[in-house]
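Write out the 3D structure for:
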Amino acid sequence: MSNLKEIAQRHGWDRWKDAAFIGAALLMTAIALGSVTSQAAGKAPTHEYQLTVIESSVEIAP
């Protein structure tokens, strides 16, 4: 029975590693959610196009 206690002790939770993993997962989730919000995306630029039509009687013949 003493072997089982040693195995349980070796494979027990490592609280610092678990806390670091959970903290990193939460940080990455927050960064991912923050990058898709409307404030992070910004506003789409408005393009103003201008069209000028020139009438001409000149024709190009082939």
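The chain has a mean pLDDT of 78.
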